[in-house]
Design brief:
It contains four helices and 13 strands. By secondary structure, the chain is an alpha+beta fold.
């Protein structure tokens, strides 16, 4: 297996193709489906935790059938490495038979999924997979970029204003929090069950740390600016490491 010496990206930047797609939707008269009315207050979603019935148990994510070797670099953690490949540090620890996931060292070689961080990751299309999760919008704003599938955006970009509260889209535990993924600002990844993750990028400030348990609607970050210097949140949902269309899971507005 070849050693990975590049810095893979698993989240697409805002692209001109995405802008063209959104403009075509607007010209088709569907703008009302992509925008919410403005509010006189900060526009932040409610932050008070809501008591919900626990999600049904789910099976552990399947072990990948194709692997590549990754060499641990200075300052890296399993959570950071997992974030690059669309999986959690817990998954990497289990797949590499690591008894203590906090004890990795520079130069150590671990196996990582061969497809999750490739330039053309697998995408799920068609009917959404039942998640057993009560999803909610992470922020109120206009959808600027749609999920485009292979070769395009792996999530959606939601516009707003700098400093707006970003909320957890569902109950879960913070699997990663930091800026280790170059080009995406301060990033938070939440593990909701054994199969579903959500990711929140371009934040200005983080209000949650790795290991924190969060509830749907709880503020986890403040909106920052995307690569085009426009205030926005890049939001993804992943099923077993594969990007899925968030609009198939978020409630209709």
């Amino acid at each position: 297996m070849a050693e990975v010496d590049r810095f893979p990206k698993w989240m697409n930047q805002w692209t001109g193709h995405g802008l063209a797609l959104v403009l075509s939707v607007l010209l088709a008269g569907c703008a009302g489906a992509l925008n919410w009315p403005t509010r006189s207050d900060s526009g932040a979603p409610p932050t008070a935790p809501v008591t919900r019935a626990p999600s049904p148990p789910s099976a552990l994510p399947p072990e990948p059938t194709h692997w590549q070797t990754y060499t641990v670099r200075a300052g890296e953690t399993l959570n950071l490495i997992g974030a690059r490949y669309g999986v959690t540090g817990e998954d990497l620890a289990r797949w590499n038979r690591l008894s203590n996931p906090n004890l990795i060292h520079v130069g150590q070689r671990i196996k990582v999924p061969a497809t999750a961080a490739s330039s053309s990751p697998a995408f799920r299309t068609g009917e959404p997979i039942a998640s057993g999760i009560d999803w909610q919008w992470p922020v109120r704003g206009s959808v600027l970029t749609l999920f485009q599938g292979e070769g395009g955006s792996k999530g959606i970009d939601i516009g707003g204003s700098t400093g707006m509260a970003i909320a957890a889209a569902a109950d879960g535990r913070v699997a990663y929090a930091g800026s280790g993924l170059k080009g995406y600002g301060e990033l938070i990844i939440i593990k909701h069950n054994n199969n579903f993750l959500s990711a929140y990028a371009y934040n200005r400030t983080l209000h949650a740390q790795e290991g924190d348990t969060v509830q749907a609607g709880q503020t986890i970050a403040e909106m920052g600016e995307g690569p085009n210097r426009q205030p926005s949140l890049h939001f993804e949902i992943r099923y077993n490491g594969q990007p899925v269309d968030p609009l198939q899971y978020l409630p209709a507005r």
